[in-house]
């Protein structure tokens, strides 16, 4: 008989518990044990915090580990479950996708009990952890190769009530940017599964290839701000300083004009910073051909007045690869 | 008969020239044409600037392209030869080493005319470009996965006269850090070949995985400072602002205590910033085991009073991988 996914401890037990979520073995590899922390202080919000969905985004696991250290002293009510690493094999490989089956964990929800490893992880999380939460923070990073500000992100949600609640939750992080991201419908996202069950789901994202002490402090402060807003811990929210400024803004993307693609191959030189407001025609970068110094660089200019929310790091890019992403102030 | 490496134009021609350095075909691939810029204003320093030795370090090629734009208006004497990309196949693959033969261009100098592609590139550069220069700036980056300050670097040189000249040249960049790097003797470095011929050779390095507009501005200002110091262009040197400070320091490494390695595998959390001065026992990072939340993180502490010149970005590391690098003020 097939082993079922299970927890090695009872999440409903009052107080602090630590144990594992066991993802059963399959034909592709043995069982996995994901470390799980739970702090149950009775009535109140039921929060699930997950990190390490993608193995090359390690701010989340680090911030989750920090939370585990200070929550026991700080949490006053409700229950917080923390899973620092959802996908240990991907983290060990520093890889976005799971090495065993090549799948992206955030594209296979709700998963399959008899599927490959990534699908079995999603299945275990969907069955055993998601039902215990009314609010989920899935800690991501924008990933290497791009500059991206500390941000909390969500997607357009059909139900206006859930959209409003989700947006207020996202803004409670008080990150420099809150982004409503008009994603081309990707099936199998953790977000969509949770939202279809009426839950509030927010993805903090903090980008760039270098995870430094300063970036981690901003990330942790944002999560703490959100916990304060939920009433799970007491304290005053703090606006982190980013690019020498303390400010937040809520933006949305419009699918038709939100991405600038490289018109040719070459070395991309960024000429603006994230959160810069640009007008139509402003220079945002230069694409340098590699084959000749007589060919001029190609100026990459803003298609319309907008805010640059992500800019490609200096890199060699191929025709059609994205080099800049644009957003606009949210129309409510 | 084997084709010899050659230039498509005469470097001794006065004024501005653009053309190619042709690296002959071999058994592994066809001929390569590396774009070369030369501006010959007669008597004065003979400078060679190269970038793109490693294909995942693209600050150098971008800064080299910028130089080519403003040098024609700025250079007053001497000759500057610029090769933005020494290793185009590595840049196209975003890879440190050359994909065709897997070799590191900075370990095969002086190269071999009948060798594999990387060796043929080194051979062409050694024969045709190096003899034209008395000073070389080889534009590198520390590379992804680490935080590293804008720096100019050199290695200990046996000849005290050349060491003094090289150190003065390195300090003329006025980067936040000048580093004399006690490298374990790696054969085949471009540096060593040039220094053995009595030439001044400096590597600017600017690290981290994200090449943003601000980092590029610091890099370009440093190169301009060095050109001013050489007397090739006129102007006032500028101290770039880095971590909210305008300061420079000259450091050296001591091989026995310059690196902290991970004592176990886990997720590394940096707890200090580059250029932080630390005392023996100060916390510089935490290594979080992934398998259990009951096992405490392992504190990584400074072995002695020193300056952190590079810190591993948040990442999964294996036992024995470096997580922090230390240096000390240079004793002259």
Automatic annotation (TrEMBL), chains A, B:
Residues 44-228 form the Succinylglutamate desuccinylase/Aspartoacylase catalytic domain. InterPro entries: AstE_AspA_cat, N-alpha-Ac-DABA-like, N-alpha-Ac-DABA_deacetylase. CDD domains: M14_ASTE_ASPA-like. GO terms for molecular function: hydrolase activity, acting on carbon-nitrogen (but not peptide) bonds, in linear amides; hydrolase activity, acting on ester bonds; metal ion binding. It comes from the Bacteria. It comes from Phyllobacterium sophorae. Keywords: Hydrolase, Metal-binding, Zinc. Its cofactor is Zn(2+). The keyword Zinc applies. PANTHER family: BLL3975 PROTEIN. This is Peptidase M14. The keyword Hydrolase applies.
């Amino acid at each position: 008989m097939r082993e079922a996914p299970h927890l090695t401890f009872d999440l409903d037990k009052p107080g602090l518990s630590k144990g594992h979520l066991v993802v059963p073995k399959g034909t592709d590899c043995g069982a996995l044990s994901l470390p799980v922390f739970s702090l149950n202080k009775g009535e109140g919000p039921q929060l699930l915090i997950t990190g390490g969905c993608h193995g090359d985004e390690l701010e989340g696991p680090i911030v989750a580990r920090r939370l585990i250290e200070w929550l026991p002293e700080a949490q006053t009510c409700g229950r917080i479950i923390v899973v620092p690493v959802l996908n240990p094999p991907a983290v060990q490989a520093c890889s976005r996708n799971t090495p065993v089956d090549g799948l992206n964990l955030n594209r296979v929800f709700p998963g399959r009990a008899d599927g490959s490893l990534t699908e079995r992880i999603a299945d275990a999380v969907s069955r055993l952890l998601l039902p215990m939460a009314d609010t989920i923070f899935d800690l991501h990073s924008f990933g290497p190769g791009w500059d991206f500000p500390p941000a909390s992100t969500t997607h357009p949600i059909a139900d206006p009530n859930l959209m409003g609640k989700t947006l207020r939750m996202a803004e409670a992080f008080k990150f420099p940017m809150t982004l409503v991201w008009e994603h081309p419908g990707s099936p199998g996202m953790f977000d969509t599964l949770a939202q279809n069950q009426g839950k509030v789901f927010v993805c903090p994202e903090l980008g760039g290839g270098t995870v430094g002490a300063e970036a981690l402090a901003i990330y942790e402060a944002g999560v703490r701000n959100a916990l304060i807003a939920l009433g799970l811990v007491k304290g005053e929210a703090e606006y982190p300083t980013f690019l020498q400024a303390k400010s937040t803004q809520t933006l949305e993307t419009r699918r038709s004009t939100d991405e600038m693609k490289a018109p040719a191959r070459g070395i991309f030189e960024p000429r603006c910073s994230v959160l810069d407001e640009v007008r139509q025609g402003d220079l945002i970068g230069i694409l340098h051909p590699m084959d000749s110094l007589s060919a001029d660089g190609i100026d990459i200019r803003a298609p319309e007045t907008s805010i640059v929310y992500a800019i490609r790091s200096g890199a060699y890019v191929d025709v059609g690869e994205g080099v800049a992403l644009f957003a606009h102030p949210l129309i409510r």
